[in-house]
Amino acid sequence: MKTTIFLRFGIGGLIAWASLLLLSLILPETQLSWPAVLLTFGILVLIPSALLKLDLLPQKTRFPIIIGVLLASLAFLSPSSGMCSMLCLPYLLGLGFILFLRLRENRVLFSLTNLALLYLLIAGMWLFAERAGFRPLGFDPLINLLTAIHFHFAGFLLTGLAALYTRNFPSHSDIYFNLALLGGAPLVATGITITHFHGPFFVESVAACWMALTGIWVALKIIKTPPHWLGLIGASFLLFGMFLAIYPNESGLSFLSFSFYVLLR
After folding, report:
1. CA-to-CA distance for 78 and 127, rounded, in angstroms?
2. How far apart (Å, rounded) are the C-alpha atoms in residues 250 and 241?
3. How many CB atoms lie within 10 A of CB 181?
4. Which positions ≥6 away from 260 have C-beta within 8 Å?
5. CA end-to-end span of the chain, whole Å?
6. Tens place of pLDDT for every residue, the chain, 265 residues?
7. Phi-psi region for residue 197, left (φ > 0), alpha (ψ -120 to 50) or beta?
8. Helix intervals (H) in the chain
């Protein structure tokens, strides 16, 4: 039964995402940027399915979240404005409600699942700010959008994937695994902020390498588990993106900027 619902969420999300892309081509003066295409894919297809897989989407929250992700995706069909931010508000409130329910029902304050949910709530806040046209700390609008992508993918999805792994295959090294994931996403955001204020660039580089190595660690753990074709495909893409994140200069590909690294995930 749960597998059927999971497939419905995934297929329904793909249909909604394809419809959004088609709508953006039909409407005059509307064209989604590549970061927006990636983020809407994550919001419509990956986030609801991941929440369901992590047992974070009880029956009473499913309809609000579906409405929230649809409205948040529609917010990208026009330039940033107050109206666009209002379209993102149900998504943000829905995520906050899920985190509230999780903390109320689970007395364990720190867990990878709770951390993943916290990252997702932060991602929703950055999405709201970007669509409202806010520029926190004077960041460029593209950086705001990439930060929302960062916390959706490297924050929530990567941490959620690790939470699933440790739930099914617990080991004595989980504490180090948890600490690595705890530091990754915030360190990258901190490094970008330091660079933005003309601080040393090496902080951002070290943070990006930390994040990439953590992603590789997750991918290798998944590959060592009993074979599952979806898991192997996901781990392969994760490895590819993270290796390129560590070796952009050695690759000789000039387009492998930080923005492209974020898109790879």
Report:
1. 14
2. 14
3. 26
4. none
5. 30
6. 566 776 788 888 899 999 988 888 887 677 788 888 889 998 998 899 889 888 888 888 888 899 999 999 999 888 878 888 899 999 999 999 998 888 887 766 678 888 889 999 999 999 999 998 888 878 888 888 888 888 898 888 888 888 887 777 776 666 666 677 677 777 777 887 887 787 887 777 777 777 777 777 777 776 666 655 455 555 555 555 555 555 544 444 444 444 444 444 4
7. alpha
8. 2-26, 34-41, 47-53, 59-74, 82-105, 112-132, 141-150, 158-168, 174-196, 202-224, 229-246, 258-264
pTM of the model as a whole: 0.80
Helix residue spans in 225-257 (DSSP H): 229-246
Query: Structural domain tally of the chain?
Result: 1
Output the six-digit token pair for 88: 């993102």
Spatial CB neighbours of 128, under 8 Å, sequence gap ≥ 6: 85, 88, 89, 92
Instruction: State residue 10 phi and psi, 5-degree precision.
Output: -65, -50
- Asked if residue 88 lies in contact with residue 128, where contact means CB atoms within 8 angstroms, the answer is yes
By residue range, what is the domain housing residue 169?
Answer: 2-264
Half-sphere exposure of 91 (CA within 13 A, CB side): 31
List, in sequence order, every beta strand (DSSP E) within 14-108.
none
Q: What is the widest separation between alpha-carbon atoms in the chain?
A: 56
Cα dist. 217→14, 205, 262 in Å? 29, 18, 18
Tell me how crowded residue 152 is: count the other CB atoms within 10 A of its CB: 27
Here the contacts of 23-31 (C-beta below 8 Å, separation 24 or greater) are 23/77, 24/76, 24/77, 27/77, 30/77, 30/78
